[in-house]
Amino acid sequence: xxxxxxxxxxxxxxxxxxxxxxxxxxxxxxxxxxxxxxxxxxxxxxxxxxxxxxxxxxxxxxxxxxxxxxxxxxxxxxxxxxxxxxxxxxxxxxxxxxxxxxxxxxxxxxxxxxxxxxxxxxxxxxxxxxxxxxxxxxxxxxxxxxxxxxxxxxxxxxxxxxxxxxxxxxxxxxxxxxxxxxxxxxxxxxxxxxxxxxxxxxxxxxxxxxxxxxxxxxxxxxxxxxxxxxxxxxxxxxxxxxxxxxxxxxxxxxxxxxxxxxxxxxxxxxxxxxxxxxxxxxxxxxxxxxxxxx
Amino acid sequence: xxxxxxxxxxxxxxxxxxxxxxxxxxxxxxxxxxxxxxxxxxxxxxxxxxxxxxxxxxxxxxxxxxxxxxxxxxxxxxxxxxxxxxxxxxxxxxxxxxxxxxxxxxxxxxxxxxxxxxxxxxxxxxxxxxxxxxxxxxxxxxxxxxxxxxxxxxxxxxxxxxxxxxxxxxxxxxxxxxxxxxxxxxxxxxxxxxxxxxxxxxxxxxxxxxxxxxxxxxxxxxxxxxxxxxxxxxxxxxxxxxxxxxxxxxxxxxxxxxxxxxxxxxxxxxxxxxxxxxxxxx
Lengths: 294, 282
What we know:
The structure holds two protein chains of two kinds.
Chain A: E1 2-7, H1 15-25, E2 30-34, H2 43-46, E3 49-57, E4 61-64, H3 74-78, E5 84-87, E6 90-93, H4 103-107, E7 113-116, E8 119-128, E9 131-138, H5 145-159, E10 165-169, H6 176-182, E11 187-192, H7 196-209, E12 215-221, H8 227-239, E13 244-248, H9 252-260, H10 271-293
Parallel strand pairs in A: 1-10, 1-11, 2-9, 2-10, 11-12, 12-13
Antiparallel strand pairs in A: 3-8, 4-7, 5-6, 8-9
Helix pairs in contact in A: 1-10, 5-6
Chain B: E1 2-6, H1 14-25, E2 31-35, H2 43-46, E3 52-63, H3 73-77, E4 83-85, E5 90-92, H4 102-106, E6 112-128, E7 131-138, H5 146-155, E8 162-165, H6 172-178, E9 183-188, H7 192-208, E10 212-219, H8 224-232, E11 237-242, H9 245-252, H10 257-260, H11 265-278
Parallel strand pairs in B: 1-8, 1-9, 2-7, 2-8, 9-10, 10-11
Antiparallel strand pairs in B: 3-6, 4-5, 6-7
């Protein structure tokens, strides 16, 4: 199985649109995962039919029994996450801030604090025309999105490990969910755009990827919105020895396909769909090469 | 007053709105702009200036091998798996450590003390006569964005007018950015993705009790479903910015719409007035 994650650094560069199109075009058996768990959109293009749902339990959260709490404040003094606050005579934990470290349980002199399990999301397993899709939703404002990404990947690998390709629609950024997404992955396809922000964020996310071991590939979306910056990105990739596998033009057909809820490659012929065909061919070559090297 | 700019979905134009709002307001008052998208901070690209850098550190444990008798209590206590006690030594995985301080508390031999470990930095720059920019940077490969956001916001805590640019998403970094803000601008685009993620972001602002209003960016005129969504959720659509290749080009080169086309300043002034109304001011 080849494990490929589509990521971006900067948000909104077209990860989901391109992931859905690649799911439509790439040959072989496929399992899909949406690892952008705090704003998951891939399902909106793949018309999934839900098979099963599992609760996601994040870290446990501290709970102070107000009947036992004497209001001494030891818990608040030791909490490094500013999660404990006085409320009247007793103290109370803000579950959004609590990181589940259990220091408060340890320091409470009257044993008023216990750790309570907390469901902070759901992992969903669905059928699509292209293969199984594992997606999730995180309770808005909840933490542990990196753990939820891990749960999503694990379900996909447990249930569909015999597929030829594991295709992940990844999160933006470089922090905990991104690191969780790219760990154990063979290749990342970074989608960027010709803007100073796109290039800046591309460089940062490449620096993070290089601390892990995926093969790094780049595609430029909406490349014609600024051809000179596209050229700058192309040069930078060449200097860094990163293959540029695709250039997709700005195309209103993309927004139309998102509004229809289908991959762009299923929305009739368009310049963007043609460009993604070329991207797919280049990508296949790179991935085959990668596989042969192993 | 503290205003947050958030979106749920990435790439809707949070940074564009934050930068233009701050630029416009700084012509008449003192403004602090805080880039809380510490994983991919971009505001500095629109305001290149010399900066002063302050490291952001978290406290991580160091185990004195001479005093430690490998009793295992620290490893048992650590909820993050950052400490593994072997027969002859203790392994510490700094990237897993949340810096809770628990291991130092439970060690019966007092064999653990804490030292600072850099996870990122905060930079400060006066980018225009009345505009300061504070940027949080998370170091590459470090997963813990929240302490860096906290440090960036702390640097602005005594300022009167603060605009915080959030990261995309709806999880802990966004919550950290939004907390204690008086109003939140939610930037969206009129697509199913934009609406789906706007709904999640609205859920966060409601949970935190922060009044929110909407900016529709890159509108191609097909906004009805987004307008309906906003009407149903009692959200004011404060301003709408059309899709225009020329506006996109200004932004992609790192320039500001309100600098290149000053007629837009009026729009951003009205956005500020609406934020003030949201926050319950006059």
